[in-house]
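In response to reviewer comment 3 from the previous cycle, which asked for concrete evidence that the modeling workflow produces usable outputs, we include below a single protein chain processed end to end. The sequence was submitted unchanged, and the resulting structure tokens are shown without manual editing.
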Amino acid sequence: MSYSASAGLLALSVSLGCALVACTSQDTPTEQTDANTRPLATDSRSPSNTVTRQPTFETALCFLNKSTSSTSGLKLNTARTGALGGTYTGRIHNEKAGYFAGIRTSLSNGIRGARNEVRFDAVTEVDGDIQKTTQRWSFSLQAAELIGEVGADGAPLNRRITLQRSNCGDMETALGYTVP
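The workflow returned the following structure tokens.
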């Protein structure tokens, strides 16, 4: 199935985590409570002898494409550790023909490359059909673009997607649901 979206690019530098934190208001601090959390300080003079835990900041950047026949979004997540992942999701809607299709791609194990590119392991579901691929995305502060995709059999796929930078709330409103 060919799925296209239109226009744009998001700059990923060597210090992607810092760049993303500086360019989005979607930063949300969350307090870790797992065993891997590193205590910042223990105050033995405190009556409860409490441990202060270091917060983890997750950063999300969102991109959106809306046209008369499709709506799609990409949410790029960056962990404080620099790990990259995300979700590309959307729907094709041709109301005259009564045709509707949904697509969802989980992006994981992002590896930064040259020229603001990131390579992801991708698992895509289109109306119940699941495909595993490797995807290369190019990012700028204005947009995200799928610039390459290789199937599990090693064959290149000719799918191009371009999305414009968006506020995450606006993207989710346009899609009609929350994107992880």
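Residues 87 and 106 are 5 Å apart (CA to CA). We consider this sufficient to address the reviewer's concern, and the full set will be provided in the supplementary archive.
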